[in-house]
Every structure is written in C-alpha cells, then in structure tokens.
C-alpha cells in the first residue's frame, strides 16, 4: 500500500479551524482548536529530563500552527512551571496575548497514590497553578482522575471549582479520568447533588483504533449538559505503535501481544501503526483531541496527521487496513483496563 505524500500545510490553514479569536465570549469553549498540546510530555513519566525539551520552540510552533490550547496538570511534575516560563517569555507574550490561547489544567491528584479533593486543597492547587502559569485566570480546570476516590468524596472539591468559576478565576469546570461509565455517572451526580453542570470532560485512551468506548457515550454526556468531550492520548499512552509501550502501561499482556501483531501487519504494508492510529482517531472523533509532543518533529507530524486524516484518498486507503487491524485485535478491540475504585463502576444514582 502506498500513501500520497502531502506537504506540511501552511500554518494559516489550521489556525482558521481553531483560532481563539472566534470565541463568542471569554468563557466560551467554542474556539477550541481540533488539536490541543498535551503537557504530560513535560513530565518524567514520558521524558527522562523534561527540562531539556525545547518547550519554547514546541509551544511557539503549536501556536503558529493554530494549536492554541495547552493541557497540563499540577500532577505532571514540572509541566506547569515549564509551560508558564514559556508563556511569560517576553517574545511569546508579545506575539500571543493571553486572550489568544487556552490554558487548561487539573487539580486534586497530588501523586501516584495521593489525592485531595478538599475545598481548601483544590483552591490552593488552583492558586499555585495560576502563579506557575503566570496568568490570572484558567480557561478550564479539571478535577483530576476522579475514579480514584469515592464519587461522593469528589463533590466538595468540584463544588469549590464552581465557586472559583463564579469568582472568575476559572472559566470552565471539568472532570477527567479513564473509565467512561464513571465519568458519565459523575456528570449526572454533580447535576443532581450540586445543581451544577459540568462544562467539559476529558478521557484518555478511550477513542482509539483499539478502543471506541468514549464516542459511544457522547449522547449520555450531552444529555447531562456537558458542552465538550475531549479525547486524550489517541495512541493510548504509547500502546499503539511499532515500538513496545512504556513500562508503566496498564494494558493486559494479551492486548499488548495483539497490538504488536497489528503493528507488524501494518509495517508489512509500509504503514506505521502509530500513523494509522493517529489518523483514525482524528478522522473519526467528533471534536478536539489532546496530543503530547516532545519535539518539533512530533509537532509537525501531528499537524500533518490531522490534515492527512481529512484527505479522502488517504481515508479510502486507510479503511481496509483499519478493518484488518480490528480483526487482529479480536477480543482486544474495545478492551479496557481497571482504573480507580471498583465501587465507582457500580455506583447507583
């Protein structure tokens, strides 16, 4: 199988799709671009020394290409600090005033096994993020990885986020996590108990060439009043590529084995599984996708993948190979792994 080689599109093309200037109001999420720069790459989990990454070049290149939103977290090691230093850089600040991009962060998760959703900590975390990111407001703050606490225990922290929204510190309140049913339940619980509507939801590894569960639940999120549902990690945290996944990856060994077989199959057709997977996710997702980049090469590849996903000829060529990958995955198609408390999956409203 041979693919059409497209030149990297001019940055103005992507900007038209996602310019922040198209926001109807300062609180609107309507200007979110189709791609968001994921800040987890500026952390030790993905890079041995995130301080050595060309953060300024990555962020500037993303902004030039219309990727005018950054997703990070207080939990992501030095991520907020590195991003904040770039945004405060006089050169970047002159080129890109604060109102021309979105800053999205998260609160509530402190360490791998440490969480605090108390109102006092959530406020303290947000205030620290404001300082680190050199801003006086945040476009979105997610309650981070909500599945690891009893859902009832997340409500005080989420209520505090809504309080900060009323104060103008936060523009939109969201929740993030892995298990889609838990996220759906919590959006309903917040509406029922707090009388509030979650503005935005982020899940990761749940709309990929291997797992399509997030898209199947969109109607439930929208019925609960959610405005935007974002798809994170379309390569499933390094699972969907020809190289072995990172050691921390929680997928079953059988799923990893099947993905490796799929990668060998696509390679036999001169197609890298990661490229096919990225195009699949970008082509079929209804909204914005969060993708992390560690280099300018990866930024360019991500933007290229977006435009290739919109190309009809490449789409036609991809379709048969996607079907073959799904056949190889077999029972691994739509397989998920355990994340968080079992009781949350059984929560009854």
Describe the structure.
The protein is α/β, with parallel strands linked by helices and 349 residues long. The chain has one domain: TIM Barrel, CATH 3.20.20. Helix content is 44%, strand content 12%. It contains 14 helices and ten strands. The chain has an eight-stranded parallel barrel, surrounded by five helices. The chain has a two-stranded antiparallel sheet with strand order 4-5. Strand 7, helix 7 (180-194) and strand 8 (200-204) form a beta-alpha-beta unit. Helix 5 crosses helix 6, helix 6 crosses helix 7 (180-194) and helix 11 (273-284) packs across helix 12. The chain is globular, with a radius of gyration of 19 Å. The termini are far apart. This is NADP-dependent oxidoreductase domain-containing protein. Residues 34-306 form the NADP-dependent oxidoreductase domain. InterPro entries: AKR, Ara2-like, NAD(P)_OxRdtase_dom_sf, NADP_OxRdtase_dom. Keywords: Oxidoreductase. Pfam families: Aldo_ket_red (PF00248).
């Amino acid at each position: 199988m041979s693919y059409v080689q497209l030149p990297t599109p001019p940055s103005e093309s992507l900007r038209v799709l996602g310019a922040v200037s198209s926001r109807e109001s300062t609180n609107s999420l309507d200007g979110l671009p189709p791609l968001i720069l994921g800040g987890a790459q500026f952390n030790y989990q993905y890079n041995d020394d995130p301080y050595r990454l060309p953060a300024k070049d990555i962020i500037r290149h993303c902004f030039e290409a219309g990727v005018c939103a950054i997703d990070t977290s207080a939990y992501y090691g030095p991520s907020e600090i590195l991003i904040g230093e770039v945004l405060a850089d006089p050169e970047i600040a002159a080129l890109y005033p604060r109102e021309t991009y979105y800053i999205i962060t998260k609160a509530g998760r402190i360490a791998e096994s440490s969480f605090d959703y108390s109102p006092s900590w959530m406020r303290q975390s947000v205030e620290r993020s404001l300082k680190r990111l050199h801003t006086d407001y945040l476009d979105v703050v997610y309650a981070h990885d909500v599945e690891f606490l009893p859902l009832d225990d997340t409500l005080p922290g989420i209520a505090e986020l809504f309080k900060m929204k009323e104060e103008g510190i936060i523009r939109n309140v969201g929740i993030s996590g892995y298990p889609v049913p838990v996220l759906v339940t919590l959006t309903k619980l917040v509406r029922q108990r707090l009388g509030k509507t979650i503005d935005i939801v982020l899940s990761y590894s749940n709309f990929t060439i291997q797992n399509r569960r997030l898209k199947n639940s969109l109607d439930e999120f929208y019925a609960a009043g959610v405005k935007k549902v974002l798809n994170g990690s379309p390569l499933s945290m390094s699972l969907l590529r020809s190289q072995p996944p990172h050691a921390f990856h929680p997928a079953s060994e059988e799923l990893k084995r099947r993905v490796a077989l799929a990668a060998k199959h696509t390679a036999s057709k001169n197609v890298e599984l990661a490229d096919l997977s990225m195009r699949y996710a970008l082509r079929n997702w209804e909204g914005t996708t969060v993708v992390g980049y560690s280099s300018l090469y990866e930024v360019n590849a991500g933007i290229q993948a977006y435009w290739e996903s919109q190309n009809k000829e490449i789409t036609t060529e991809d379709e048969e190979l996607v079907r073959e990958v799904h056949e190889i995955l077999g029972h691994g198609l739509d397989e998920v792994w355990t994340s968080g408390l079992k009781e949350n999956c059984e929560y009854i409203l």
